[in-house]
Amino acid sequence: MNPFATHFDSLEEFADRVSEVLQCPITIEDANHRLIAYSTHEHYTDPARTATIINRRVPEKVINSLWREGVIPKLLSNREPIRVEMISEVGLGNRIAISIWKNKEVLGFIWAIEMEQTWTEEQFELLKQAAKAAKNLLLQLQIRKHKKEERIQEFFWKLLTGHFSSHNDIIQQCHVLNIPVYPFSSVVIFHFKQEIQPQVERQIDYLLKTTQQLAVPLYTIDHHRLTLLAAPKSNANAQADIKRFLRSFIAQMNERFRIEITDGAFGSIYECYTKIEKSYKEAQTVLNMKRAFPHDLGNVQSYQELGMYQFFDLLLEKKRDGDFYNETLEKLKQYDNRHHASLVKTIETFLDHDSNVNETAKALNIHPNTLAYRLKRIAEIGEIDLHDMNQKVKLYIDVKLAKYETSH
Amino acid sequence: MNPFATHFDSLEEFADRVSEVLQCPITIEDANHRLIAYSTHEHYTDPARTATIINRRVPEKVINSLWREGVIPKLLSNREPIRVEMISEVGLGNRIAISIWKNKEVLGFIWAIEMEQTWTEEQFELLKQAAKAAKNLLLQLQIRKHKKEERIQEFFWKLLTGHFSSHNDIIQQCHVLNIPVYPFSSVVIFHFKQEIQPQVERQIDYLLKTTQQLAVPLYTIDHHRLTLLAAPKSNANAQADIKRFLRSFIAQMNERFRIEITDGAFGSIYECYTKIEKSYKEAQTVLNMKRAFPHDLGNVQSYQELGMYQFFDLLLEKKRDGDFYNETLEKLKQYDNRHHASLVKTIETFLDHDSNVNETAKALNIHPNTLAYRLKRIAEIGEIDLHDMNQKVKLYIDVKLAKYETSH
DNA sequence: ATTAGTTTTGTGGATTTCCACAAAATCATG
DNA sequence: CATGATTTTGTGGAAATCCACAAAACTAAT
After folding, report:
1. Which residue windows are coiled coil (chains A, B) (predicted)?
2. Spatial CA neighbour of A349 closest among A337, A358, A340
3. Which residues of chain A have a CB within 8 Å of the CB of B387?
4. A97 with A82: CB under 8 angstroms?
């Protein structure tokens, strides 16, 4: 006899019924640990549950603990209820949990708190039945969500490609689509090693929905790329917050799902939503430049950090028009060719290392005096004063620009 | 009785007649020391005269000597014949010279060599008569020249403004207009302190026609500016040759005529005549940048030396579009405003002096440790690594660009 | 192979730069 | 004007950079 084989008007009603049957507080989450429903009978409740109910989602540090303890991996691979030992650092009491399945996909979880008495075999059996019953209720939710999701996707692409010209129009649309609005935002792009498969999409969704480092009101997936709108909490260290998010997102995708992300980048942080297009372009520029200069821009992620490479596309265009002939560089190249030397490589490395002789010598595996000699020759042959910032800047840009041109 | 009161078919005939009458070699030059005619009777001839005849103009070093000795100034202010002592360093024998006048303008000169016998009063008188007779002959020459000059002016402006698209068309036009063609050329612009008056135009013409450091096939004058096409002799040190020309032209205008030239600049050196337009634009860019950055570009003359400022117009355009927001710079500016400090000035000077602490401290009149402290603060406040070339370059450009923007 | 010219590496000392610490001066603010 | 924070200047020693000189290695010709 199944106590859940009746019709429920809402998921709340269902949660209350499960709670009644099992005599303990019940929480139902979706696959991304968003709160879907919770029982309201008066029972003891642990701090983790309270926090979950208040924020309408499970706190990130709780999720992280559960991953570390192997609880969530077990739930994702196993249809049986499992007992979860107390994790007092994050306020989690003794729990019983079970995942809700549809075919091979996890739709959500039911969490129970194990009260004074240890659960009987019968109680475990009842929880399994509850999980089966929850499946249909969750499916209905999902269908409603999918329809909305499509409209949101289209809206996001319009934002990215600069389809709107008024900030207020955008805000209004957000309200209609129930997209939260934040004061500051930046476009983030991740480049994945493999093309992103539907299963990975769910994993991405999972991480984005569970992260609380910053808000991700919108995201979209396209081939190898995940593009999202990131809203840092404060403006003060927004830059740093986004960087931290990038790092942890890449790490978690790898640790939890063995998905490799080759690269991540983000554009400037803007207040006006019409600037999302610009931020998107900037993020793309960062990715392009990182591909062209993997060595130079290895740990650059933001458009700000891109420095002089910000305007390389502009310069390349002019260079293609035949401008920017650099006499010094041409003379050095010529010398390199005629005497198969490597003056250009030498000056590039020297400038890469902030004109520091020792560091450069190490990087080139040559004696510091050798470097000094070469620099003397470079100054002579290229007719350049290596203590003149303007000349050095021009030469540095031209060297890198020449590389950029051939890398295209 | 005037022995020159007859009709002469050519100036050569006239020169021979003067030579006959005075019993010595005669050379007639225009106001720019170009050879107009010379006598062919067999007499002793000094090396200076030989060289003049072969090159069809007086060698520059001879002209320079004559200026230094005060001979030419005297000829330009005085209608009497004068005796010129031998200047053996430049191969000049004992000479008698007189200027040819029309109203208040000197049209040219007659030079005689004083042979063994010292000239009599009568001979001086005959030379004066010859000078008067030469006037009409020279005037006819001038009229022919003026007409041609107008067509050449128009042609030069067309070249400067990119009116022609084929190199060969241009060369052909040059042949028609009798303009010599050179393998390499660059556009030079001089900016004069005062608007250029007709009298100064003649002085410019004089210097340009007499210089032999490089060829000046074309030039034009417009308000404060003299624009000319300079053809260096060799390609090897063309850059240096043009620089030398600039320096000496400015010096000579000042020394000889008390005319002040505020600035001079030149574009890249091109082979193809269609690139004259580009060289002209480049020279203009140099002048504009020098006006905006007098301190930074004090002794820059060529487009090559302009370095990174070459593309400032391009960058400014983008900056006006709202790109190139530099977080570091904004933070420093903000700090400067709030605490009326001078971090921006400090970092600018530091970068101006190639990141050299001691030099910068001297330039700012502060203790090196003060500078070190400020640099530490700059790194903290601007969140910049002052050993990262890329970041430094970006900051340097943005600092200068901000100045450029306000200077407009 | 020889040879002159160029490049690399090594050595040692003069000079400069860098840092840590501290005192003095200045500034902001109640 | 008292106070604490920030900035400037001073001192001295460790570390690094620079430079001159020379030997060795290498190259490109004859």
Report:
1. 124-151
2. A358
3. 354, 356
4. yes
SS3 sequence, B56-82? Answer: CECCHHHHHHHHHCCHHHHHHHCCCCE
Write the CA distances from B232 to A220, B204, B295, integer angstroms: 61, 19, 29
On the 0-12 / 13-18 / 19+ scale of CB atoms within 10 A, B343 is: buried
Over the stretch A164-207, which tens digit does the pLDDT of each residue have? 999 999 999 999 898 999 999 999 999 999 999 988 998 999 99
DSSP state, B10? Answer: S
The two beta strands, A35-38 and A186-192, are unpaired
Please give the domain boundaries of chain A with CATH numbers for all domains.
11-137 (3.30.450.40), 161-309 (3.30.70.2470), 325-406 (1.10.10.2840)
Nearest residue to A65 via CA among A33, A89, A83: A89
B308 and A393 within 8 Å at the Cβ level: the answer is yes
pLDDT, tens digit, 9 for 90 and up, residues A257-295 = 999 999 999 999 999 999 999 999 999 999 999 999 999
How many Å apart are CA A263 and CA B112, to the nearest integer? Answer: 85
Query: Pick from A108, A58, A110: which is nearest to A87 by CA?
Result: A58
Interatomic CA–C1' length for residue B203 and nucleotide D15, angstroms: 62
Partner-chain residue, chosen from A311, A314, A393, that has the shortest CB–CB distance to B396: A393
ipTM for the predicted complex? 0.84
Q: Of the candidates B239, B304, B351, which has its C-beta nearest A389's C-beta?
A: B351
DSSP 8-class letter at A302: B
In the chain, the amino acid numbered A152 is: I
Instruction: Yes or no: say if B160 and B280 are a contact pair by the CB < 8 Å rule.
Output: yes
Q: List beta partners, residue A106.
A: A101
